[in-house]
Every structure is written in structure tokens, then in C-alpha cells.
Design a protein that fits this description.
Distance between the termini: 31 Å
Helix content: 25-40%
Low-confidence stretches: 463-470
Mean pLDDT: 94
Largest sheet: 6 strands, mixed
Oligomer: single chain
Radius of gyration: 22 Å
Number of helices: 16
Structural class: alpha+beta
Number of strands: 25
Strand content: 15-25%
């Protein structure tokens, strides 16, 4: 049986695993599982945390559904996942392998996710200025650590290592006593200079930041170790890549030409295109700019309009309707609700109702809230409201990276991806209206496929075995 690569995406709401043929780059098996890992904000601090045990449970369920005979022929493992967030653990005791060919978390914190809101604008403004083109927002790893320094300093004393959830899994698989992080995930934490690929250690030290928690940095696409044990059939000694950012992997899976832009609408929403070789970002954060520059591969960058408001806004609307309907003594499933709403909006081709959907603010404008305007007696049907809501989600992204900006960059095609876009024809209609370019919807535009493709391409482009990062 031919070799395959295993790609795993630890997303905000689900985990996906794929097996990619090493010779053809074709997906030979795939499975996804919901994580249902969100925790309640019992302290009322706008916390958004997840239980890592439930996330790893989802990983184990996912891998159990893949053909074991294929898993036994995995030649390389790649992980990606939600960026910005931070998980703390103790070196050497961060997991338990006593179950046999799988591990369970031990001596870890909860995962503080990218959606976390505990760092107020006033708190963020009190932090030192980073030596980086990227600013720092609530939900970013370094900002969260600063928050713990101020509000719960003893909490940090319990842990010796920190990283994203995908970095944690890499560390556990390889039996590492430290965390190794790529610039993609490091930049998402803040206080990381992508030009030098180094943390702002002097700035952080001067502010009393616990430098011991900063991960070591490895290039995107590098291998950082080998599986220390058999894992769901994957042999011990299988090379493992440094964890990558889910956004970059999603783009990698579907961007096939320099003139392509990728629009992803899933939990949040991003519109991006690749910048030409040799591009260098600004020296300092452009705080009020809606466009950021994310590190990609081989010292290249992506121009990104990253909105916090995407499919999560639609989900909030559905959850609100569900509560209202329950108050009337009736119940509808989420799937039924989406089906009805999409059907109503498809019958309502346009609406003069105006919805600004920024209920979560934006990183460049955190105080911004949502609005509904131009309300009349004639535009309050479900069709009008859902059509206007979908229009608002797309229009918000388009305002962050206007059509003219794309055209100046030579973009001639938009590749649409993401679960919200795939399931919602109304959103797709609004995309095609907002961006009168060729719009295609990539069937394999996902991060699990992307991380496997990255390692497959590195494997095929390098003579012999890929270099190991040490």
C-alpha cells in the first residue's frame, strides 16, 4: 500500500483529519468531528475558553474513523488549527499515554481561544508597543499572558510551557519538553517580528513578561520530531511537522494562481491574496488599517482582511431565534432553522433593510457594534432580515478590502471557501454581487488538506528526507 500523509485541523468548533496520497496529492480518506468544547464564562470576564480534553477526544474519535490499514502507512504527520489562542502545560507531564495508542491531556490549563474578550481596549493600550508590523488584540496569546500577569500571576507559576492547541499536540506526539512554533502561529500571538523571526524579547523582558513561556521558532514546513509512540495505527518514529496556522493552510489548499484571492467564511471571515516576492511589511502596526500582512511560506506574505464577524454572526441570529421560539413553547433544530431562513432569503432577492453585523467588533475597530437601520413596515419578514444579514456579512468584508484594492493587485478570480459559504446559497449570491469577478468555490479548500499538501510538497521538493529542525 502506498504512503499517505496525515493532516489534522484543530478548528474552533470541529476537528478534521485527512489522509493524502504522497504520490498524487489526492485525498484518500477524511473525517470530521465536532469538539463541543466551549466552556461557560463563569467569572464574567468575557472569557472564551475551551476544554482541551474534549478537543483531544474529538481528535481520537476522528482518527478512529479513518481506515487503520491506511494509518499504518502514514509517512508524515502535519497539524494546523485555530491561531492566536494559548494553552499552558507542564513539560514532561502534559499528557498521559497509558491508554495505549492515544494520549489524554494532563497538567494543562484550559485553552484561551482567539475569541476571548478579557483584554479591554484600555488594558491593551497599557501594554508596551511591539516591534512588529502586527498589533496586539484581545485573544492573542501574549496579550492573554499579560492579562494573567496582572490579574492572576500565581496561575502562570503552575506551568512551564505555552503554545497554541496545535503546538501542544505536536509536543505531545513527539515527547518534546518545550514548544516549537512556526512564524505563522507566533505572529498570531503578537510581539513577534516576522522580518527577523524573533520574539520581541527585550521589550517583553522590560515589561516583566515570563520569557520562559515563549516557544522556540521553526520555519513553516519544517519537521520538529517523530511520534514517540504508535498513535491510532500511525507508527512510532513517524516524522511530525511544526504546527501551521489554519488560515495559511486553508489558503494553500485552494490558491492555485498568483491572480487568485481567497474568501473564507466559516466561523469568522477572511479575504486574502498573495503579495509578490520581496514584499516587506511596515515596521510598526497600522492600528486603524483593516488589512494585515500574515507570514505565509518561504518569507512571503498574504494581504488579509480578517473579520471577526462571519458565520458566527449567522449562528448568533439562529440561536436568538431558537430562544424566542422556545419562549413560545415550540422547538426547531438548527439545521431546520437554517434551511427555512435560506429558503426565505432566496425568495427575497434584495432588501432595503440595512444590517451592520459587527456584533463582535473588529480588531482595527474593537468598539464597533452591530446596527440595523432603514427599518420599515415592509422589510421585517424573515426573508428580508436574513437576506440583509448575509448582505451585511459580505459587505463588511468588502469594506475592509474593497474591490478596487483587489483589482490594483491584479486579482482576477476569487476562490470561495469555508463551511458557512458552502452551506448558504444566499451568502454566495451576495459574494458574487459584491465582487463582480470570476468566483469559484473550491471543493478542497480546507486546512486539514492544506497542511498535508504543504508537507507533501516539501517532501517531494527536497532530496532524500526533509531536514529536521533542532
Amino acid at each position: 500500500m502506498s504512503d499517505v500523509l496525515l493532516g489534522i485541523d484543530l478548528g474552533t468548533t470541529s476537528v478534521k483529519a485527512v489522509l493524502l496520497a504522497a504520490d498524487s496529492r489526492a485525498v484518500v480518506a477524511a473525517h470530521s468531528e465536532p469538539t463541543a468544547a466551549d466552556l461557560s464564562d463563569v467569572r464574567g470576564i468575557k472569557a472564551k475558553e475551551q476544554d482541551p480534553g474534549l478537543i483531544i477526544d474529538a481528535v481520537n474519535r476522528c482518527l478512529d474513523q479513518l481506515p487503520r490499514d491506511r494509518l499504518q502507512h502514514v509517512c508524515m504527520v502535519g497539524l494546523t488549527g485555530q491561531m492566536h489562542g494559548v494553552l499552558f502545560w507542564r513539560a514532561n507531564t502534559g499528557c498521559d499515554w497509558s491508554d495505549g495508542d492515544s494520549f489524554t491531556p494532563r497538567d494543562t490549563s484550559q485553552l484561551v481561544t482567539w475569541q476571548d474578550g478579557r483584554c479591554s481596549s484600555d488594558f491593551l493600550s497599557s501594554l508596551p508597543k511591539p516591534e512588529s508590523h502586527l498589533g496586539v488584540s484581545t485573544g492573542f496569546g501574549c496579550a492573554t499572558i499579560f492579562w494573567y500577569m496582572k490579574h492572576r500571576p500565581k496561575f502562570l507559576e503552575d506551568f512551564t510551557v505555552a503554545g497554541t492547541i496545535q503546538d501542544y499536540v505536536v509536543s505531545m506526539l513527539c515527547g518534546l519538553d518545550s514548544c516549537v512554533m512556526t512564524p505563522q502561529n507566533a505572529a498570531s500571538w503578537g510581539f513577534f517580528n516576522t522580518a527577523t523571526n524573533q520574539w520581541n524579547e527585550n521589550i517583553l523582558k522590560a515589561a516583566g513578561f515570563p520569557i520562559r513561556l515563549l516557544p522556540r521558532c521553526a520555519p513553516a514546513g519544517a519537521l520538529v520530531g517523530q511520534t514517540c509512540s504508535a498513535w491510532h495505527g500511525v507508527p512510532a518514529g513517524t516524522p511530525v511537522g511544526a504546527a501551521l496556522g489554519d488560515f495559511q493552510c486553508s489558503v494553500y489548499s485552494c490558491m492555485s494562481a498568483p491572480a487568485d484571492a481567497v474568501l473564507n467564511i466559516s466561523t469568522s471571515a477572511q479575504l486574502t491574496f498573495a503579495l509578490p516576492a520581496g514584499f516587506t511589511p511596515p515596521d510598526s502596526p497600522q492600528i486603524e488599517s483593516s488589512i494585515s500582512y500574515f507570514p505565509y511560506f518561504d518569507s512571503s506574505y498574504l494581504a488579509v482582511a480578517a473579520s471577526l464577524n462571519g458565520g458566527n454572526v449567522l449562528a448568533t441570529f439562529v440561536e436568538t431565534l431558537t430562544v424566542w421560539i422556545k419562549d413560545f413553547g415550540a422547538e426547531l433544530s438548527d439545521s431546520c432553522m437554517y434551511e427555512k431562513l435560506i429558503g426565505c432569503a432566496l425568495s427575497q432577492e434584495t432588501s432595503d433593510l440595512m444590517v451592520s453585523p459587527t456584533i463582535l467588533g473588529e480588531r482595527h475597530d474593537p468598539r464597533r457594534l452591530g446596527q440595523v437601520t432603514n427599518i420599515s413596515a415592509c422589510n421585517l419578514s424573515l426573508g428580508h432580515v436574513f437576506r440583509a444579514l448575509c448582505h451585511g456579512v459580505v459587505s463588511n468584508v468588502a469594506s475592509m478590502m474593497p474591490l478596487e484594492h483587489l483589482q490594483r493587485a491584479g486579482v482576477s478570480r476569487i476562490v470561495g471557501s469555508g463551511s458557512a459559504l458552502a452551506r448558504n446559497e444566499v451568502l454566495r449570491q451576495e459574494v458574487e454581487r459584491a465582487f463582480p469577478l470570476q468566483v469559484d468555490y473550491g471543493q478542497n479548500a480546507d486546512s486539514a488538506v492544506g497542511v498535508a499538501m504543504v508537507l507533501c510538497d516539501r517532501l517531494n521538493n527536497l532530496p532524500g528526507n526533509p531536514c529536521m529542525f533542532t
